[in-house]
Amino acid sequence: MLSLPPAPSRWAGELERIVADEVVNRVVAVGECRPHPRNYNGHDEGQIGDLRASLRRFGQVRSVVVQALSPGLSPNGGGGYLVVAGNGVHEAARLEGLESLRADVIPADWDEARVLAYLAADNELARRARPDEAQLAVLVALERLAGMGLEPRLAG
Fold first, then answer.
1. pLDDT over 90 for what percent of the chain?
2. Measured on CA atoms in the order 63, 47, 138, 134, is the torsion positive or negative?
3. What pTM does this model have?
4. How far apart are CA 35 and CA 97, in angstroms?
5. How confident is the prediction for the chain on average, in pLDDT?
6. CATH for 20-129, options being 3.40.140.10, 3.40.30.10, 3.90.1530.10, 3.30.110.30
7. pLDDT > 70: percent of the chain
8. Environment class of residue 87 by beta-carbon count within 10 Å: exposed (0-12), middle (13-18) or buried (19+)?
């Protein structure tokens, strides 16, 4: 097995530090995250229920996006995170009693305009998708067959 030498001491802690314009992926505590107060997308009980069911069935497959808060800017004064994308998943995880989520963490020094632009882009770009209803019907039918323990036969 390949073994790497230890990092020089001058790099100690650098991999864990969030620096300007660097987005890092890490595990964050659900309780340290709060919804972005300017997120304009709401999630009704039905959608949250579907997200909870998805988390139970598949686990968390993709990361939420959060912004690291500088100490003193969070309600408890100790930092934490604002959920910028994935507010519904965060709420579903909280209700499911999950303790942590994988998150892409944007730096605390991103200004509000940049964060809000990303928030809006994430919400609106998804809205522009055009679903293929016929393909969706096939996927739903296959899922129903799989759920009944039957193996679907594909033409071909």
1. 55
2. negative
3. 0.73
4. 17
5. 80
6. 3.90.1530.10
7. 75
8. buried
